[in-house]
Amino acid sequence: MSSHKRENAYETVPQLLARNVHQFGNNPAYRLKELGIWQSWTWAESAAEIDSMALGLVDLGLEVGDHVAIIGRNHPVLYWAMVAVQCAGGVPVPLYKDSGSEEMAFVLEHCDARFAFAEDQEQVDKIMEVAEQLPKLESLVFVDPRGLRKYGREKLRHYQDLQAAGRHARDTAAAVLEERLQAQCADTTAVMLYTSGTTGRPKGVVLSNRNVVQASKLSAEFDSLRHDDSVLAYLPMAWVGDFVFSIGQAYYTGFCVNCPESADTMQADLREIGPSYFFAPPRYFEGLLTSVQIRMEDASRLKKWLFKSAMAHARAVGPDLLDGKPVGAWDRLKYALCDYLVIGPLKNTLGMSRVRLGYTAGEAIGPDIFDFYRALGINLKQLYGQTEATVFITIQPDGEVRADTVGVPAPEVEIRIDDKDEVHYRSPGTFIEYFKNPESTASTKDPEGWVATGDAGFIEEDTGHLRIIDRAKDVGKTATGDMFAPKFVENKIKFYPDILEAVVFGADRDRCTAFINIDLTAVGNWAERNNVAYASYQELAGHPRVAEIISSHIETVNRSLAEDEMLSGCQIHRFLILHKELDPDDGEITRTRKVRRRVVEERYADLLDALYNGSENVHVETEVTYEDGRKGSISADIQLHDAVIADRVRTVESAA
């Protein structure tokens, strides 16, 4: 049998696991930092853990097709649980660990979950709080026993007890497990992932093994991922990216998945592991650059000069060196010196010394931010994707990496733009259906397999690169007839480290306005350096000097927009700085940090009206949700600000 046929024989994640035990049995598959110490499991050891867990699930009564919820932080046991559920014929359904009880109840009830894995007491408590709404939930398996000793054990059990029961029942359960494994194929459901629910209730996206394995295979081969690569798994397990990177690609290539001790130690753990493959949303890269800028503000004059000089040269030649373009000998030598003195130590501090391939997606990343990391010699690229595509729609080839596009169609992906400028795709990763939602399935995926992304964009004729403008439903016209593309403008505003979030309004109105969230870390550091006293986010957001800084950023954005003939009508005329951060617990943003535009518009309707009726200030009372789920309210007097509008630049043709 040829190697090509052997590769095609691996149609499911469990089959890839068996192959990895055979080929890479003694290689590390998972690492976990616990109590400051890294623990490691080989592929052979991981397979043994998964096998006993799968046997335990069969013994517990899991039937083929049952949905099993997985809730918690990135942890080897929860990754094993997902694959064990697949082996036993079930469907893993990972949830966001910071979801509230009611959010969890919706997903658990919607997918008819009979079983659930929960990381710790916090997650167990959230499920038990809504237990009456979940009559079908039979058993809850936990990982961390701390705080659960006195809990009733009617439905609760430790994962090691589940494994022990599986090993004890091996004589009867092994045959059933093997039969289920043999029955699985490429069309067997691999996972169900819920969308973030930007415009309504989350939808369950059903992905097959064909979707997962093919998307992982094609993307891994595109970027030459290898079994000796490693990743840091720290993004939500409920997000399709983490599933594809930490299970799909990890199992296809055999590389190691490293789990940090906590979100608080993530950056330190990243430095210790030094992964070769790294993914992060733009917000992470923006925050990391902000921290570098803050540290440089506190550095000596010599260090500031050295950093500024080194980065100026790195920006000039670093991307060309990365792309293999010709660079003069003197510039190469100068870059090597910069690397020795500044760039190398900086990459080590960032934990990216060994990063061979980095990706960002989910939102547009600022060109300056993007160029900063590529100047350091980090091969950071953009991709465009969604849950329904098993991540990959477009991808950037080496040597064609740009900040203003999302690349070319990923391998075996077809793209077309309809007459309303909406992007459609068809690919091996195209989802099967929305669970219990045939109407949404039919409206999103046509009979020929083409999926409507909901994003507006266009393909460059000369390069074949895709450029995304905005969400198709958000692209409109102002009352003056100008194009309105809020996400495009919001991304420009968010390029500034002082600004965490922006929400722009203007559809069918005579001018555009914006809500702003400041970045507490960046602005707080500025306040400390400038002796500006503040006691809370609300107080800092309302400070007049902060308003001056934000106003200068808006003015710069407006000048940039004025030079764009298509979007010059999107200049911001008035803005305000919100008295609180947009929060997923308040339903204002999703768990993946996407703004729920309609919710924000309705929740702050009085503030929006004030921006358009000429008010200079407005008093608001806002209900908030605390971390423990309790409700409260905050009040504030918010100042509204006029922005400087730039003269629009028009071409000779448009003037005529």
Write the SSE topology:
Elements: H1 3-8, H2 13-24, E1 28-34, E2 37-42, H3 43-60, E3 67-71, H4 76-87, E4 91-95, H5 101-110, E5 115-118, H6 121-129, E6 139-142, E7 156-158, H7 159-168, H8 170-183, E8 189-194, E9 204-208, H9 209-222, E10 230-232, H10 240-253, E11 256-259, H11 266-273, E12 277-279, H12 282-297, H13 301-322, H14 329-350, E13 357-360, H15 367-375, E14 380-386, E15 391-395, E16 408-409, E17 414-417, E18 422-426, E19 433-434, H16 438-444, E20 451-459, E21 466-471, E22 476-477, E23 483-484, H17 486-493, E24 499-505, E25 512-518, H18 520-529, H19 537-541, H20 544-562, E26 572-577, H21 597-603, H22 605-613, E27 617-625, E28 631-642, H23 652-655
Parallel strand pairs: 1-11, 3-4, 3-5, 5-6, 6-7, 10-11, 12-13, 13-14, 25-26
Antiparallel strand pairs: 1-2, 8-9, 9-19, 14-15, 15-16, 17-18, 18-20, 20-21, 22-23, 24-25, 26-28, 27-28
